[in-house]
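User: Predict the structure for this protein chain, please.
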Amino acid sequence: MNLRQIANAATQTINPNMPVIVKKFAGYSSAAGGKVTSVYEDIFVEAQIQPVDSFKTQHLQGYAQGGVYKAFYLNGDFTGLSRGKGSDLIIAGNETYEVIDQPEGWALTAGWTKVIGCRQ
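Assistant: Here is the predicted structure, written as structure tokens:
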């Protein structure tokens, strides 16, 4: 039973799901001049986006006091999203969030993953 899907049906009336792009880090590319750039795989998905309260953010590794944090509830298996060097990104509207935590991964049993991102 996917309880998140049931809850999401109710919360969408107040906070609609939003299309996002998960930019999954795929490595580095080197140009002829030696410039190294990050390469990403774009995955288009809908997300329920919610704020993260300040108490929870203080316990995140790499916490930035002035940062804006959001929780992204993503349908599908995103348990492999990376944090740190070569971090994955989430594009929501015109804002970019770096994935910094993955507190819940229920993809195998319920079909969804929760990740926390910090606005860049």
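The first strand starts at residue 18 and ends at 30.
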